[in-house]
Write a structure and sequence with these properties.
Strand content: under 5%
Helix content: over 70%
Order of helices and strands: HHHHHHHHHHHHHHH
Number of domains: 2
Length: 297
């Protein structure tokens, strides 16, 4: 009987150990299944992004921008056109008469810089953003779109690496669904998100570099205005001085290109369009209109 009890006890102990291993393995299985589901959803998101990019460029698709129709480059086309207009106005002001090409007149059937209706297509950005838009316009629209998509990703990766983030974190951040949406929409979320995250992470280690990065966000004040308050609250004077220096430099660069009237228009005319945008129904513009890498950071 003692031998039977010993054998039975041994079998019972083995069963308990196996059950314990099963209990320990079960959470691991759920983790694997969760990651598999996330991976599948991500693959579907990538596939849908590629499909949208190809569909928007398919033969037969309207290649014009009107009040109700956008180009395949989406918001990027708005920046590109505005930058082209700024460069032409600058050239004309200095004695070089340049007229819009026939392609521009046919493609852009709405003056985005002057239009106030519909307000969604009004230029709502500060003149500092126009500096970037002018760089867009140096190349043809289709080429510029892809070149600057790549440049933004490289700049963001460099800045995030300066903030000592691991490469796998950077890759996940710049390859997230929000950035895929950003690419399709032709926005600059990779750039502004990378700048913002890097500035926040570098405040203590490299305050001057953090302040310089923060100053670059003057192209999008709704993101950049919070950073000076953080620098002041953290008493990071070198970072704050670097921030001010970069902002002053960017503002100064806008003056020969557009002059003070551009700033007056931004503070008066664009603010009215912004107010109409904010007062529009939430379902009309958001949350899709606000998806950037910054939101996922």
């Amino acid at each position: 009987m003692a031998h039977k009890r010993w054998v039975g006890q041994g079998l019972f102990n083995d069963f308990c150990e196996m059950s314990g291993e099963a209990v320990q393995m079960r959470p691991r299985l759920w983790v694997v299944l969760t990651y598999a589901a996330i991976g599948l959803l991500y693959v579907l998101d990538v596939a849908s992004t590629i499909y949208v990019l190809l569909a928007m460029r398919a033969p037969g698709q309207p290649q014009v921008m009107t009040a109700t129709q956008e180009l395949p480059q989406s918001d990027f086309a708005m920046f590109w056109y505005s930058g082209k207009q700024i460069l032409m106005n600058f050239a004309n002001a200095h004695g070089y008469h340049i007229e819009p090409t026939a392609w521009m007149k046919t493609t852009f059937q709405l003056d985005l810089v002057q239009s106030t209706h519909p307000f969604l297509l009004t230029w709502l950005y500060p003149p500092t953003m126009a500096l970037l838009a002018s760089l867009y316009a140096v190349m043809p629209l289709a080429l510029s779109f892809w070149v600057w998509r790549g440049i933004f990703l490289l700049i963001a990766a460099y800045m995030l690496r300066q903030a000592k983030l691991d490469w796998w974190v950077i890759i996940l951040g710049l390859g997230c669904p929000a950035e895929l949406h950003d690419i399709v929409g032709g926005q600059n979320g990779a750039l502004t998100g990378g700048v913002l995250v890097s500035a926040l992470l570098l405040i203590d280690a490299k305050p001057r570099l953090a302040g310089s990065f923060a100053g670059l966000l003057s192209i999008k004040p709704q993101l950049g205005l919070c950073l000076p308050l953080i620098l002041i609250s953290r008493r990071r004077l070198p970072a704050l001085l670097a921030f001010v220096a970069v902002v002053v430099l960017l503002v100064t660069l806008t003056l020969p290109l557009m002059g003070w009237p551009a700033w007056r228009w931004f503070l008066i005319g664009a603010s009215q369009s912004s107010a109409r945008l904010i007062s529009a129904p939430l379902s009309q513009n958001f949350p899709a209109a606000g998806v950037t890498v910054f939101y996922d950071a």
